[in-house]
Each structure stands twice: as C-alpha cells, then as structure tokens.
Amino acid sequence: AQNGKEGIRICDVLRHEAGLAALASETEPEDGSKDYNITLQDIQNLDAMAKIIAKARPYWKDGIRRSYHSMTRGFILAEIVRRTDPSGRSLQVF
Questions:
Q1: Do the beta carbons of residue 92 and residue 44 sit within 8 Å?
Q2: Stated pTM of the model
Q3: What is the pLDDT of residues 20-38, one digit of tens each?
Q4: Pseudo-torsion of CA 43, 44, 48, 52, nearest 10°?
Q5: 3-to-13, 15, 59, 94 alpha-carbon distances in Å
Q6: HSE (CB half, 13 Å, CA atoms) of 30?
C-alpha cells in the first residue's frame, strides 16, 4: 500500500469507505486537475488499472466517509482475487 492506503481493509472497500470512489493522482498534474486521465486501454488492462490504483491516494482516510466506489470497486476486488488465488486467475476466469 502506498500514498495513504496502508490502513484500508477489504471491508472498507466493500462498504465504499476506502476513499477511492474516484482516482486522485499521486501528485497534481500540470493542468491543476487532481484526477488521473485514464484511457480505454487502461480500463481494458487489469495490470494497468492495478498500477493506477496502487499509485492513487484516497480522497479521505479509510472509514471516515462513505461514497459509492462505482468506478474502482470492481478493479480493487478483482486484484484481491487475482493476488490471493494460488493460480493467479482473474475474477473473469475465476
């Protein structure tokens, strides 16, 4: 875990309390925005999304606030499945 995600638990993700409802960038881009510019190619690539989420910083500390993680929850849970499955299968294959 990096960028303030050390205390996030699986239950925080399941309850939409992980602070990752959107993806805040590790540092502010030059244009002043705080979000990543994610491409369609990124969304179609689980490894790319895992890296983007790993680098992201939460918008709030885990467990403090709830906001629907519609854009990130599936990617986070898919990576948990992939990393805990002895065969390394994706959620789609599992």
A1: no
A2: 0.77
A3: 888 765 555 555 555 667 8
A4: 10
A5: 16, 20, 11, 30
A6: 0
